# Entry
Amino acid sequence: MLTIVSNKEHDVADSSLTSRLRLATVRLNRRLRAQRSSSSVTLTQLSALFCLYKCGPLTPGELAAKEVVQPPSMTRVIAALEELGYVSRRPHPSDGRQAIVEITEEGSAHILADISAREAWLDKRLAELSDVDRELLSRAAEIIDRMASHQD
Amino acid sequence: MLTIVSNKEHDVADSSLTSRLRLATVRLNRRLRAQRSSSSVTLTQLSALFCLYKCGPLTPGELAAKEVVQPPSMTRVIAALEELGYVSRRPHPSDGRQAIVEITEEGSAHILADISAREAWLDKRLAELSDVDRELLSRAAEIIDRMASHQD
DNA sequence: TATTGTTATACTCTATAACTATA
DNA sequence: TATAGTTATAGAGTATAACAATA
# Structure
């Protein structure tokens, strides 16, 4: 087992954790993207739609911040979702520059089935694990999400 | 907290684990890709190079299998690394169709610095965690990698 | 002048299909 | 005929820079 030497604060025995977590994340992400299924939305679009489903109406800027992407990236995602009829856009009541993006009834109706189809592969992998491992991943997911949402 | 209803084998209280792990993975992956630094290699190239560094010489097919990507994807990665002088290619001794790809001295000399620069952001996030959380992520990384390497 | 959002452009990552060369 | 690898092509994902509209 290779150990990368580094001069970081935390324990040296831990020093390849960064590499291992990076590799694991990149690989799982690949597998997740490869699960296309019959769902019409892409993985990125699904994430944004799910965010609107959870949080309610948001401005494009708020949505970009929550998903930790730059505004131009979110512009494209919203445009695609709008074309599919899964989100609607209306003027902001007090600021003409902004808009309010909201999930539509059709978007709400499809999202659970879309997510379920999209996640079928991962769900199967998780079902193969022990309860202990699933509990561990549950806590890991929270920590990872917190790190990923860190404001630099 | 939203709970997605599903009819899967494992506990219903667990039912949003799939979604949470997917979201966490996608977001961390975005952050990792955004860390460009001065490193000349991309995240994908770095993964392949690291694999050659760990495993020794491999054929393109073996490398693609280890990284869980399709052969044409690996072809491009190898070509880019070869152009940078980080890997070399030589004929397979007994099979004219295959080739042996190996990390060069220059590749070996640069990889630790490249990885370190690339991972600086994640390393900082991990350093902010408690020992308990890092230990948890260490085990999670192993489980995730195992799931991601699953042969369908 | 600062902020919000969009348009234009470009690069990374990855896949499938079709092809070539060798076994 | 089967396998290893490459080329061609296309689509997803994302960013930076430049711009328009509004505050």
Q: What stands out?
A: Residues 14 and 91 of chain A are 51 Å apart (CA to CA).
